[in-house]
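Illustration 12: DYW domain-containing protein.
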Amino acid sequence: MSRAAAAVAPADPQLLAAAVESAITSRSPRLGRAAHARVLRVLAPAIPQFICAHLINLYSKLDLPGAAAAALAADPHPTVVSYTAFISGAAQHGRPVPALTAFAGMLRLGLRPNDFTFPSAFKAAASMPARAFVGPQIHSLALRFGYLPDDAFVSCAALDMYFKTGHLALARRLFDEMPNRNVVAWNAVMTNAVLDGRPMETLEAYFGLREAGGMLNVVSVCAFFNACAGAAYLSLGEQFHGLVVKCGFQTDVSVSNSMVDFYGKCRCMGKARAVFDGMGVRNSVSWCSMIVAYAQNKAEEEAFTVYLGARRSGEEPTDFMISSVLTTCAGLLGLDLGRALHAVAVRSCIDANIFVASALVDMYGKCGGVEDAELVFSEMPQRNLVTWNAMIGGYAHVGDARNALAIFDEMIRSGKTAPNYITLVIVLSACSRGGLTAEGYELFETMKERFGVEPGTEHYACVVDLLGRAGMEERAYEIIQRMPMRPSIPVWGALLGACKMHGKTELGRIAAEKLFELDPQDSGNHVLLSNMLASAGRWAEATDVRKEMKNVGIKKEPGRSWITWKNVVHVFQAKDTKHEMHNEIQAELAKLKRQMQAAGYMPDTQYSLYDLEEEEKESEVFQHSEKLALAFGLICIPPGVPIRIMKNLRICADCHRAFKFISGIVGRDIIVRDNNRFHHFRHYECSCRDYW
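Figure caption equivalent — predicted structure in token form:
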């Protein structure tokens, strides 16, 4: 091409329009701005109208709202194409107000919306609050212009809008009036029913589609699997899996992802893994689905292994992936793993994402790192209900009821987030663990009036625990008797635990008998009753309970404590002699015992639940699994590093008292996570303030 031809070529409007379209296709703001600059340099001030429409479409598609609005304002003669491009881009990027404002401006100019404008306007209306009632107004316009109910494209958009804004009756009426129900219309019914937690409606719509002679597509298949997952219809989903294979949909990555999710939610991890392993192509959703499936089935180690596999395969961390893996760290109580993932989130610039940040708050709270949770929480630019619940729960786990209530009050004062059923369970639990009996009981009594939440069995279990810990077992029993629903296992378990704590053996027997009826194979309830009787010195009755357990084949779960050092988990049981460092551990315990006795410690032998001589009892309590784990930690873990111990049962009162002494004597932070909560021992004190 000659130099003269090269100078003329860029002036061709068609070539300039192609340059703008190329920037849209490549999603490159830099190329788009360069193309815009060339348009201004070559064609201004007489820019053709179709070029103006291309520029509006460019900035709208690239989610540059300021530039898109400026381009629309600069168009001297905007057409329906210009406005539709702007409305479509704003709606697609979750900006309903600018989209609907432009729609209104278009009508004021006398421009007639077309069959592309109305679907975009309906999409924007779907993001508005239901009370705004914008959607029905657009519906009336579409009727007036003749697009409803005959135009399937516009009808499906209106249908989706009504479902998403909660106007179910209007949605069903519109669906019934549609003369041409294509697969998109049926899919709108199916997918929205799944999202709203109405799986049966999804299944009914699927069978309606088939009866009408409609053909399935990928969206239909995914919606059906999601409905089966939501309703836990394993058999139906398995049959549908066969149909999917017969129709050839199993090679689609979205369908395979939905099958992994379905089998995971139905607790068929072998089949979920088989689908995952058989996928020829995987995307980020595939890896995340497998991670979540394992996490939902309490297989946290496998979930973390899948995450590592995703990274090795070159998959970049996404907000959903990181937030999913963080839940596994909370399940594993893997604080170090969680911190490593936090670093990954920071490097990937997704740590400020609300889902990732909420998962971080939850992980730190469940792993006992409440200070780290506070830091993440305080730096979040926005918070949702999950965030607030996670922070309140973090304080509840360590028994800091005052701070839990302070965060709860802050959430209420913000006016942006209303507490839900789970929030109130967490707050009541915090009050129970922190000894705020009056505050917790008042919340329980007023929750329906203040927040519109009807008390459920979980709330009753919390209030029974709350009153029981405060020594008001009879009052707790009265509340149980007045429950509008059948008392659950946690309700009776809370009462039994309180009776054991305060020596109310007769009421404890009533609670235990109820528990034996509800769950006869749970060894924990039998053991708790036996221990309660033994604590009261009623050895014969305690022995009878143990004999009954043996006769019916109920085995007591042994108490275990474990501690991690150099990526190796060391597990201890009471009176354990198998550990390779047994001699060093016993020597460390003997030294600690002398130091503690010199500081005024006396063993609490009521927690040696055998009819033994006093000296034997002292030896018995000093061989509890958590003390063995602590001695190992003191030997191996360098000074200055907190010692973290996990226990599968509740820590006993003697170990709790001993750990307070040891924390002061050796000057170490000791953190114990038992089956109920965290205990942070430091300078002769515990974070629970002896209320646990």
